[in-house]
Write a structure and sequence with these properties.
By secondary structure, the protein is an alpha+beta fold. The chain is 21% helix and 26% strand. It folds into 2 domains: 56 residues; 151 residues, Galactose-binding domain-like (Jelly Rolls, Sandwich). The chain has 2 helices and 11 strands; from the N terminus they run αβββββββββββα. The longest helix has 31 residues.
Length: 260
């Protein structure tokens, strides 16, 4: 008499294990290459949220890791400071300010490295304008350059205060610009170019606020495809593993179990 039991096929089991190992290796290799490419294209901005130094009120002075055209017109402020007088600070406790009230454009900049020529990057940041109108104020004009590329429209972006009062609940504005690298290094510059006089020799206060600057490589379609293939490989491996845990019963058509 023969009894039905579990069917064992060593050859097929060994082949299955080898296939699983191959799938896992390929999937992990693809994911590893994609992750390495992303890391290689990450651009580090030092002191991106302007939290690394403090200056006594009103906040004028040098900003760590950033160069200023005039440290008597740039600096950092906490919420409620004389310049950061409206809007909710996006990240951390401080923002940078760039004041242009003497008839000359002012700005802050930082030299960046690690770009890959031809790679596209997204520059993002938050911005606002001082609300105070004493003695007289004018909305700043923001200009942003990266390397030899001017990212903002010609003539700059006119920035009105996020809040029409001394309120700190209204969010800052958010901006994102694309940049295609032309070399491995580039200087990022934020400028306030509102230099117009309201009368002969009289220049209004015009203060630009900045926070949470970041620069990320845009994944190329090929990288996204590799990531998808790697994820699909891991999913197939998971399903194969689950199928392998299910017992297979001999139906009597193939190899029979031992006599009893």
């Amino acid at each position: 008499m023969f009894s039905k039991g579990l069917s064992v096929s060593r050859g097929s089991h060994s082949s299955s294990l080898m296939a699983k190992a191959a799938i896992a290796g390929a999937a992990l290799a693809i994911l590893g290459m994609t992750a390495s490419a992303a890391l290689a294209n990450t651009i580090t901005i030092l002191n991106p949220s302007f939290e690394d130094n403090t200056t006594p009120s009103p906040g004028y002075g040098a900003i760590n890791d950033w160069s200023s055209t005039d440290t008597s017109l740039t600096g950092v402020n906490v919420e409620g400071g004389p310049f950061a007088d409206n809007g909710a600070i996006p990240n951390g406790l401080q923002v940078a300010f760039v004041q242009a009230n003497n008839g000359a454009a002012e700005g802050i900049s930082q030299s960046l490295t690690g770009f890959v020529t031809g790679q596209t990057y997204d520059l993002s940041f938050y911005y606002n304008a001082r609300y105070a109108t004493f003695p007289v104020a004018r909305d700043p004009l923001m200009a942003v350059t990266l390397g030899s590329s001017t990212l903002t429209p010609s003539g700059g972006v006119s920035v009105v205060p996020a809040s029409a009062s001394y309120s700190h609940t209204v969010p800052y504005y958010f901006a994102q610009y694309s940049y295609t690298a032309t070399g491995s290094t580039a200087t990022l510059t934020f400028s306030n170019i509102n230099i117009g006089a309201i009368s002969t020799g009289v220049y209004p206060d015009s203060t630009l606020l900045l926070d949470d600057v970041s620069l990320q490589a845009v994944p190329e379609p090929a990288s996204l495809g590799l990531l998808a293939v790697g994820g699909l490989g891991l999913l197939l491996l998971k399903r194969r593993k689950e199928d392998g845990l299910r017992p297979r019963f001999d139906t009597g058509r193939g190899r029979r179990a031992s006599r009893c």
